From TrEMBL:
This is UMP-CMP kinase (Deoxycytidylate kinase) (CK) (dCMP kinase) (Nucleoside-diphosphate kinase) (Uridine monophosphate/cytidine monophosphate kinase) (UMP/CMP kinase) (UMP/CMPK). Keywords: Kinase, Nucleotide-binding, Transferase. It comes from Durusdinium trenchii. Pfam families: ADK, Hydrolase. PANTHER family: NUCLEOTIDE KINASE (PTHR23359). The keyword Metal-binding does not apply. InterPro entries: Adenylat/UMP-CMP_kin, HAD-like_sf, HAD-SF_hydro_IA, HAD_sf, P-loop_NTPase, Pyr-5-nucltdase. SUPFAM superfamilies: HAD-like, P-loop containing nucleoside triphosphate hydrolases. Belongs to the adenylate kinase family. GO terms for molecular function: kinase activity. Gene3D superfamilies: HAD superfamily/HAD-like, P-loop containing nucleotide triphosphate hydrolases.
């Protein structure tokens, strides 16, 4: 690959980003399919390569490495086979169908990506692939995003030219009915495709920054952005998600995914006249903002879980602890994230926010209620951005208040050790020890407190002294909760 070098070189582009005004002009998003909309360490790419090799050997009686040589020389094996007259035009369809007939079981559902795409507001979305439509459709089906695109531009659409031929880009624009290249944004894992995209005046984002085989850092001056995986654009291009809150013709899609009841009608079905003043606590009615969330933050061991357990006895709220959801996932024998979560917890570090948000979105769907206490999230800037892009922007939920439990670190250490001593067999936490506690305090001070401040600036924070007894702390908590449910 021309762009791969052993040392990253600082050049223009190469993931340096674009001014916000440029990104705001983007109207049409073009996504490559293989190794961009999904990534699986090139497992599917290997199957496709082997499949092409099998075809050339078995059907065309050519030598095993020949197909790859043709690919290198002509951009695609198919073009080489046609040019060298190993394949006639009448056999092209047979070739395309046959070689793409590979197992796609290595492509996994990606609900976070789905949510992210839905959060892209009005921007139009196309799949632009060098493979065939049927293969792309099967991949999209596997990922769970088949309904999210206006159309697919495939190798047949572009007359079988290689994808990095400028003609392919011209046809892609025609098909997507867009005339101004500066309104196009292109996501692809190929540096060659980035180069042509840039030449054509498109905005570009390289997906995947490590070269296949060598793992070397990919240098690509033609890439305006470079991300390891597609969902990283939430942090890399927050501007793209700005218009997600505006009325969207696809609102019903967001609704279907989130399960949120989106209605401006605030009538309480049990009390249609709104007469009942005493007895049960009033809860906020769900409106455009989806679920109502009270975020619960505080140092490790400050009593977030303990207070939430009390709140749910008195108020119509469900408690979701991000840490509990992660521990639950960690303990599932079939989970592919178990080891990653355990490692992060032991180090007092935070896990990939996409995973945490995914677990929270799933948990929202599992409860038939509109009011949630979300304990321990968002907990740093990347949690916060991911929360805003995946949960707030598409209207799944909105934060109506933040309970912040303030407490001295020495008190927290004592509580953490008491919790460790009391834990049931099999329920032990990997992080309730003095050594990890120190790391968690640092994470809390350095990363979580700034988030409390961000919410404070929005007027959402209610600070509660967490040093008293459980009852004392709860008295204060209850007052704040009454205020919160009455104000909404
Ligand atoms: P967090 O969820 O914030 O990490 P927990 O609610 O699990 O904290 O509380 C940590 C430990 O401290 C638990 O063992 C809990 O029983 C205990 N605890 C919680 N609140 C208090 C309190 N106000 N006074 C004394 N111990 C407390
Ligand atoms: O909130 P709790 O103390 O249960 O969190 C335990 C651990 O779970 C954290 O130290 C961190 O490793 C992980 N976590 C996370 N992101 C969150 C919440 C918790 O990575 N938003
Ligand atoms: Mg807790």
């Amino acid at each position: 690959m021309g762009c791969v070098q052993s040392q990253p070189i600082a050049q223009g582009g190469d993931g340096a980003g674009l001014p916000d005004e440029v990104l705001r002009k983007v109207e049409v998003l073009f996504f490559d399919c293989d190794d961009t909309l999904y990534q699986n360490d090139w497992a599917t790419a290997e199957l496709l390569k082997a499949s092409i090799e099998r075809y050339t050997v078995e059907e065309l009686n050519l030598t095993p490495d020949y197909a790859y040589e043709l690919y290198l020389e002509h951009g695609t094996a198919l073009r080489g086979l046609l040019k060298k007259e190993h394949l006639s035009n009448s056999k092209v369809e047979h070739f395309l169908q046959d070689v793409h007939n590979v197992s796609l079981e290595d492509i996994k559902p990606n609900p976070v990506l789905r949510q992210m795409i839905l959060s892209l507001g009005h921007k139009r979305r196309w799949v632009f692939t060098a493979s065939i439509r049927e293969h792309a459709e099967r991949c999209l089906e596997r990922i769970g995003i088949a309904d999210l695109f206006e159309g697919i531009i495939d190798c047949r659409s572009v007359g079988l030219v290689t994808k990095h031929d400028p003609i392919a880009f011209v046809i892609a624009m025609e098909m997507a009915n867009v005339t101004d290249p500066s309104t196009c944004l292109f996501f692809d894992d190929s540096t060659k495709n980035m180069e042509t995209g840039k030449q054509m005046g498109w905005n570009t984002c390289l997906v995947g920054t490590k070269a296949r085989g060598t793992g070397e850092h990919i240098v690509c001056p033609s890439a305006d952005y470079k991300v390891d995986k597609l969902t990283d654009i939430i942090e890399a291009m927050p501007v793209l998600f700005e218009d997600a809150r505006m009325p969207d013709p696809e609102a019903e899609l967001v609704e279907a995914v989130s399960g949120a009841v989106v209605s401006t009608d605030v009538v309480d079905l049990d009390d249609p006249e709104g007469e009942e003043e005493t007895g049960e606590m009033k809860v906020p009615s769900v409106s455009e903002g989806g679920k109502n969330v009270v975020v619960v933050l505080g140092g490790p061991g400050s009593g977030k879980g303990t207070q939430c357990a009390r709140i749910v006895d008195d108020f119509d709220f469900v408690h979701l602890s991000a840490g509990d959801l992660l521990r639950e996932e960690m303990r599932k024998p079939e989970s592919e994230y178990g080891a990653i979560i355990e490692e992060a917890m032991k180090e007092g570090k935070l896990v990939d926010p996409d995973l945490t948000m995914n677990l929270i979105i799933q948990a929202f769907d599992e409860h038939d209620t509109d009011n949630f206490l979300v304990d321990g999230c968002p907990r740093d800037m990347s949690n916060y951005e991911s929360w805003n892009a995946l949960i707030e922007a598409p209207g799944i939920a909105r934060v109506i208040g933040v309970l912040y439990y303030a407490c001295d670190e020495q008190v927290l250490v004592d509580r953490i050790l008491a919790r460790a001593a009391a834990s049931a067999p099999g329920e032990e936490r990997p992080d309730d020890n003095v050594e990890t506690a120190k790391k968690r305090f640092k994470t809390f001070r350095d990363l979580t407190l700034p988030i409390v401040e961000l919410y404070r600036d929005k007027g959402l924070v209610h600070s509660i002294d967490a040093a008293g007894t459980v009852d004392e702390v709860y008295d204060e908590t209850k007052q704040v909760m009454v205020e919160l449910v009455n104000q909404s």
